[in-house]
């Protein structure tokens, strides 16, 4: 069974965007701490579509899970954070991850979410993965 959030987080690490467990984390956004830096990427599973019967074969289904990336930057680094979020789209859209036949960005550019309560810039990127099972 695929794990879309882990697979996307691992792909971002492979592509040099960050390091899983250091500045890329699975799950919801968490405040900065000793183990969570101010600048971080959070990879959140968001459900998706599926299972859909694949063609006429009732034993195979088509799944379209989605993940949302929340990209948080350091205070005062809007442009740098936008660059990181854009890089996530570039590295993931139409990329290859074993077990999936398609990976697509669901938005053409990062969505600016504003500043969090501590003035960190926040961006969102949504990714769709497709597989049969």
Concise summary:
The chain is of the alpha+beta class and 133 residues long. 20% of the residues lie in helices and 41% in strands. Strands 1, 2, 3, 4, 5 and 6 form a six-stranded mixed beta sheet that branches.
Give an account of the 3D structure.
This protein is of the alpha+beta class and 133 residues long. The protein is built from 2 helices and 6 strands. It has helices at residues 4-14, 78-92, and strands at residues 24-26, 40-54, 57-72, 102-105, 111-115, 121-132. Strands 1, 2, 3, 4, 5 and 6 form a 6-stranded mixed β-sheet that branches. A hairpin with a 2-residue loop joins β2 (40-54) and β3 (57-72). The longest helix is centred in the middle third of the chain and has 15 residues, at 78-92. The relative contact order is 0.22.
Count the DSSP helices: 2
The portion of residues forming beta strands comes to 35-45%
Structural class given helices, strands, pairing? alpha+beta
Distance between the termini: 8 Å
The backbone outline, from C-alpha atoms, is elongated
Contiguous uncertain segments of 5+ residues: none
* Main sheet overview: 6 strands, mixed
């Amino acid at each position: 069974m695929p794990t879309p959030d882990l697979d996307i987080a691992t792909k971002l690490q492979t592509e040099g965007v960050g390091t899983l467990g250091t500045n890329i984390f699975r799950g919801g956004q968490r405040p900065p701490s000793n183990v969570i830096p101010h600048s971080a990427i959070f990879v959140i599973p968001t459900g998706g579509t599926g299972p859909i019967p694949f063609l006429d074969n009732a034993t195979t289904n088509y799944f379209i899970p989605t993940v949302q990336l929340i990209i948080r930057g350091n205070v005062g680094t809007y442009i740098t954070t936008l660059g990181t979020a854009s890089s996530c789209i570039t590295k993931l859209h139409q990329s290859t991850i074993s077990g999936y036949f398609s990976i697509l960005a669901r938005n053409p550019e990062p969505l600016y979410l504003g500043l969090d309560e501590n003035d960190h810039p926040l961006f969102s990127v949504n990714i769709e993965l497709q597989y049969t099972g």
